[in-house]
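Please decode residue identities from the backbone states below.
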């Protein structure tokens, strides 16, 4: 029987040859998945039964084709919670931790905040906010029925684990009537919309294996963002905060759209840990 170390070393070489960005990390995560373990508990010298080694090799081959890691392991972690994902649903990105941190920070002095997560996908951001703020009322909106099913599954699981239940809505985040009953009352809106311009070449994980409606948004990537800003302006209370993720190429255009709309103040753009533009935050003008 092969040892785990040998399997991971071999997989790392396969994934490196396929230009997977983190070959060792992904090989280790797939090994943990196949062994039903956590990465921290893997024993390098353990012998791996043939059936498990075979399954591992199949998953490594798929990862070498650039199927996203989350679609192979079926899970992703964000903000202290685990969310289930599957092919057809956006795999939450670790970058969204910064959006969560910003949101949590602006809500520190707000008791029982009202939070809306737009374009919720698997529900990751909404559920992570609910996990962090048990006193919050959290609503989340998604257009794609498949993603919404996964958000429902994840929401039920988090509620079973003791988190405050969130409310999920099927809807288009650019709908001028969306969640009209919350108008002027929302303390925080988070949005991770599709923002890539149509036709841009992406890593296969995103360009080939993610649903197009989760990634692309018109010729400049701003169709959903343009549509969602007036909705956010309507939903937020005076002084409420919008945190919206965008593409690396939107660090001026998204703040510009917010300024042009006239509904927002304190508009600022923020970068990720690699100093790449990641999101814009703004407050609803009083
Ligand atoms: C980039 S993914 C983000 C998902 C999730 N917020 C996350 O960070 O993991 C964008 C999501 O927006 C959804 N979406 C795209 N256009 C939408 C629209 N007009 N209204 C509602 N949801 C939309 C997609 O189906 C997809 O699930």
């Amino acid at each position: 029987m092969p040892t785990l170390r040998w399997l991971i070393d071999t997989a790392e070489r396969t994934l490196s040859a396929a230009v997977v960005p983190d070959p060792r990390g992904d090989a280790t995560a797939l090994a943990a998945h196949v062994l039903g373990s956590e990465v921290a508990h893997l024993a390098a010298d353990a012998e791996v039964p043939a059936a498990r080694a075979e399954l591992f090799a199949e998953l490594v081959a798929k990862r070498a084709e650039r199927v996203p890691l989350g679609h192979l392991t079926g899970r992703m972690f964000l903000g202290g919670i685990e969310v289930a994902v599957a092919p057809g649903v956006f795999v939450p990105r670790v970058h969204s931790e910064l959006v969560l941190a910003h949101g949590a920070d602006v809500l520190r002095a707000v008791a029982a905040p009202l939070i809306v997560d737009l374009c919720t996908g698997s529900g990751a951001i909404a559920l992570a906010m609910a996990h962090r703020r048990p006193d919050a009322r959290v609503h989340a909106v998604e257009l794609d029925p498949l993603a919404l099913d996964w958000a429902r599954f994840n929401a039920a699981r988090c509620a079973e684990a003791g988190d405050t239940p969130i409310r999920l809505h099927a809807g288009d985040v650019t709908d001028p009537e969306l969640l009209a009953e919350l108008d002027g009352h929302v303390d925080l809106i988070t949005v991770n919309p599709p923002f890539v311009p149509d036709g841009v070449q992406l890593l296969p994980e995103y360009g080939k294996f993610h649903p197009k409606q989760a990634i692309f948004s018109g010729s400049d990537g701003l169709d959903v963002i343009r549509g969602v800003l007036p909705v956010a302006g309507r939903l937020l209370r005076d002084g409420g905060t919008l945190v919206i993720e965008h593409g690396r190429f939107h660090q001026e255009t998204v703040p510009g759209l917010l300024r042009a709309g006239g509904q927002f103040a304190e508009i600022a753009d923020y970068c990720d840990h690699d100093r790449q533009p990641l999101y814009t935050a703004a407050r609803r003008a009083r």
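Observation: Residues 78-284 form a domain with the Rossmann fold fold (CATH 3.40.50.150).
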